[in-house]
Structures are given as C-alpha cells and as structure tokens.
Amino acid sequence: TLCILAPTPNQTMIDDDMSLLVGGKPFFPIGVYHVPPADMPGVAELGMNTVQVWSWDGVGAVDKANSLGLKVLMEFANISPNMIREWAPKLKEHPGLMAWYGRDEPYEADFDFAKSLSDTFHQCDANHPTYMVSCTPRLFPQHAQLADIMAVDPYPYPSAPLTAVSEHADLAWKATLGEKPVWQVVQSFGGEPEAQQRCMTYLAVVHQAM
Fold first, then answer.
1. Contact of 80 with 110, CB cutoff 8 Å
2. Which residues make Cβ contacts (< 8 Å) with residue 72, sequence separation at least 6?
3. What phi and psi values does residue 121 have, to the nearest 5 degrees?
C-alpha cells in the first residue's frame, strides 16, 4: 500500500536519488553529536547545520537549535514505543526536527524491538524519516531493514586503516540495495589529527555517504 503525503512546511523526505529534502529543498546534513544547548551557537558559527539532541534536553533544545538554523536528529534515552507516542505530537510539526533516531547499534536480540520503534515512529509521524547507526558490518543487511536512513560509524583511528570508512560505506550501500540513504558518522572525539579527519571525511563523500 502506498501513502501519498501532501507537502508540509516542515517535512523531511528522501528523494529518488537518496538525498534529503527538508521543506522541499535539498539538504546535506553536516553536524555533530552530543551538543548541549549552550554549545549550539558555536556549532552554528562553524557552518554546521545539524545536531543530535537527547530527549533529556527537552523540547527547548529543539527550539534552541531551530533558532540558530540547525536541524535535529532526535534521540531518546531508554526509548520505548510509549515514549515515542508521548514525544511525537510535541515535535512532529516542529521546524527544527529533521529525523527520529531509533535504536543505536542494535544487536540480534534487539532487532524486533528496533523494528517496533521504527514502526511506531512511522505511525505517529509520517513526515519525518527514522535513522539508525551501525558499526558491525556483518549485521548491515539486517540493520538496513530497521530504519529509513542507515548510518555507519567505523571510527578507525588510530587502531585500523582509515579505509575502513570507505569499506563501511560500500558495504552499507550493498546492504540497502541502493534503496535507502547511507550516512557516515565521521570519527571526531577530539584527538584525531586534522589530516586524518579530513581524509575520513573525503573517503565518506567519495563513496557517496552523506
């Protein structure tokens, strides 16, 4: 069954070429995780456009991000379908919301739960995609079924070749059959040399990961 959605001002959609459309316009997410509201102005000043926000920061954090022109990946602590049903009405029409962040890096025992979370997001809000991250290539085919957007986070430096970034991107595209976007969470803990960080970023982009 196909559902045709009417355009809405704050809608986030996945285009035919796997790019993102936010409010009907192309959007390339460049962002950072774990940003408290007090640090969001600095993120915006760096030219980034996306932040990951925890539920414990509240709707006010999404308000703050939006006031600075930032879009939000909304992630929950101790997520459950009931929590989704509580939060979705508060945020589904918020101009700052970009996507719902489901179960992070689920293992086999969590697959059914992760799928139920994605389904609940879809039931509560048809206008924003679900997003999840994987660091385990052997599970990529299963993970590709658990959200609308698949992201990978190999974090190779300093213990593995930087080409793990491109390898993870290629394997993720294979797992999604080219039918879902592949995003890359580039390692950025603060101790990576600038040259290595730049290299990881270009490897992701060259291998078509957003």
1. no
2. 50, 51, 52, 53, 61, 62, 65, 66, 96, 97, 98
3. -55, -45
